[in-house]
């Protein structure tokens, strides 16, 4: 068990909290503040316990000098001030005299947000490659380190592993919630346990399938990756997505677990991604067809399995939901989730985007804030951003 923010006396301590403020922005305006909202419980807890709060986060990728302007964290400081109802002091640098002076002058209840940690990537990727000196420097600013950025827990960065190496550390409420709702649920699911896997490539989910196929009662496969499985069964898939290198893997899984892996029986096809869908069975598919959504019979089959399930984990949309013509399957599965009596968990990334865009956010028990991190948890991996935290 890892220590949490609750395990420390925060009174008048400088508490470094690594958040995930990697929010979508357009022309300097935040278009979705979900990740900021998700960090509020941990920040408020620290403030309620009279800490001096120093926040770190990345935003986007910084590959060249021109990337800095569009990935400036100042708009996050403004929004965070509004949400907390108090001033969040923004320091427009990642190190230096201005930052050190501001930290030295902090009082209990003050909040500072440091500039985008990935500004440090311009000089030898110091953040992303966990430069030891940078981690040590950031650690020198605080007394306690709390990691509440689940979205980067699968990365070994200076702002997580680097800092935690030098300070007493714990996880925040967001990371704690992610572990409870993904890692612990996979380890001890209430049955029947159903996994929905979608997205483009089988190769991206091979380790997830290998880990979950022995634990789940059903694995429902949709989206682009379904076509590699269908190809492995000998079906014509036309112009549908194909991950040719994974055909042998699909054949092996279908041979070993024929009763667990459930594939589409029909689908909506088109000759282009912006066309209209035509319903066909998988055996009717011809060479010019591109499969873009699960069909009506498949929707009914998947929905019946879901309604009988007590634990569901969903990673990857089952159709091209961005096009209204091909979102029927994803919408139908969201509707079926309403009748699941146990936990329903969305594994971040495109699935989380689809669920929110389609207005089903409140249907689910938990929507992960980290696509890559949640995927690696589903693979059964130990995440470096969590492994580095002090044990209880």
Question: What would you say this structure looks like, in words?
Answer:
The protein is 34% helix and 17% strand. The relative contact order is 0.13. Helix 5 crosses helix 6 (158-164). The termini are close together. With 392 residues, it is α/β, with parallel strands linked by helices.
Q: Give the strand tally.
A: 17
Mean pLDDT: 96
The shape is elongated
List the total number of helices.
15
Number of domains: 2
Q: Measured on Cα atoms, how large is the radius of gyration?
A: 23 Å
At the third CATH level, what is the topology name of the largest domain?
Answer: Rossmann fold
Largest beta sheet, briefly? 6 strands, parallel
Helix content: 25-40%
Q: Provide the low-confidence segments as ranges.
A: none
SS-derived structural category: alpha/beta
Distance between the termini: 6 Å
Would you kindly provide a brief summary of this structure?
This protein has 392 residues and is of the alpha/beta class. Helix content is 34%, strand content 17%. Helix 12 (328-337) links the parallel strand 15 and strand 16.
Strand and helix layout:
Elements: E1 14-18, E2 25-26, E3 29-30, H1 34-48, E4 52-56, H2 67-70, H3 74-84, E5 88-91, H4 97-104, E6 111-114, H5 132-139, E7 144-147, H6 158-164, E8 169-171, H7 173-187, E9 193-197, H8 206-212, E10 218-221, H9 226-232, H10 247-256, E11 261-262, E12 266-270, E13 278-281, E14 290-294, H11 296-307, E15 311-315, H12 328-337, E16 343-346, H13 349-357, E17 366-367, H14 371-378, H15 384-387
Parallel strand pairs: 1-4, 1-7, 4-6, 5-6, 7-8, 9-10, 9-15, 10-11, 15-16, 16-17
Antiparallel strand pairs: 2-3, 12-13, 12-14
Helix pairs in contact: 1-3, 5-6, 9-10, 11-12
